[in-house]
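Quick one, tokens below. Sequence please?
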């Protein structure tokens, strides 16, 4: 029974992850007074892309083909490390929070070098921006997680998130508030959401993530789309686990609550994207440095 719940949690992530972008887009459509896309649009797109073939330039190497596979594989591996609904993750050990961060670093690295492998200056521009912003976002994530680890006395995500309770917030509210705010900025940055990036933009001079995957098509692009949705779900698990630790002790009820919180987070992202404009590129490093300051202050308060 102890292993069944973590397995179910991973399967829920794999099954429901494409639903989050649908909720975000539907929320944005409501704010704009439109009907919007179906909630299951990403599922349709992924299955349609899987039925197509892929075209590869003769200038690319195996790196270009490996990029989407490694990116998706790293996201699936990360999904086994994050607890959901107050239960332990499928894989849990002391220090797994560092493996969690570096798995996404591995996926990002292969996405960047796959973009560079095309020999396109345009994709190289997007890869450069992705590398710059991720170099600023990763320290914020580490500092925020270490601050939470300090308050929960655990270096494992399966020890940190299930230990988050209303009593923990009463005891360490300022620390957790600052850490959660910093991780929220990382959540938006890592998932290329407004105000950092617009996943729906096609304006060449402002694209970051989308420009790196322009040459991918067919199943490769399906892997990229699915991996991006899974990444959104995983970081959402992390953020809701810190911000809203609602655990009843009964796994079925906790699962339903956790899924509802994920849907609420997607609605919140849709509201943010409907009420804010995308920042200028030169402002994004400033925002990430500010988030890093919040995370550092959170850690200093935790160490006091």
């Amino acid at each position: 029974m102890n292993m069944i719940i973590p397995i179910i949690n991973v399967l829920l992530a794999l099954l429901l992850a494409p639903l989050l972008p649908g909720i975000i887009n539907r929320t944005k459509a409501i704010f704009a007074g439109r009907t919007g896309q179906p909630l299951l649009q990403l599922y349709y797109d992924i299955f349609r892309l899987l039925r197509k073939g892929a075209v590869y330039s003769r200038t690319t190497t195996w790196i270009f083909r490996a990029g989407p596979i490694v990116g998706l594989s790293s996201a699936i591996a990360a999904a086994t490390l994050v607890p959901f609904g107050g239960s332990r993750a499928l894989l849990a050990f002391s220090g797994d929070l560092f493996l969690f961060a570096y798995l996404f670093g591995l996926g990002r690295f292969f996405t960047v070098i796959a973009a560079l492998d095309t020999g396109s200056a345009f994709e190289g521009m997007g890869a450069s921006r992705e590398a710059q912003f991720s170099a600023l976002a990763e320290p914020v994530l580490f500092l925020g997680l270490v601050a939470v680890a300090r308050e929960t006395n655990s270096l494992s995500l399966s020890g940190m998130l299930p230990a988050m309770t209303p009593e923990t917030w009463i005891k360490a509210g300022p620390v957790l508030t600052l850490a959660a705010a910093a991780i929220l900025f990382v959540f938006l940055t890592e998932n290329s959401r407004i105000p950092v990036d617009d996943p729906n933009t096609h304006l060449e001079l402002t694209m970051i993530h989308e420009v790196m995957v322009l040459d991918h098509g067919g199943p490769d692009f399906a892997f990229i789309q699915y991996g991006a949705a899974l990444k959104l779900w995983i970081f959402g698990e992390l953020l809701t686990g810190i911000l809203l630790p609602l655990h009843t002790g009964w796994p079925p009820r906790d699962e339903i609550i956790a899924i509802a919180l994920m849907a609420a987070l997607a609605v919140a992202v849709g509201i943010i994207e409907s009420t804010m404009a995308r920042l200028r590129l030169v402002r994004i490093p400033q925002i990430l440095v500010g988030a890093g300051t919040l995370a550092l202050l959170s850690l200093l308060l935790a160490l006091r």
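Residues 4-302 form one domain. The longest helix spans residues 121-152.
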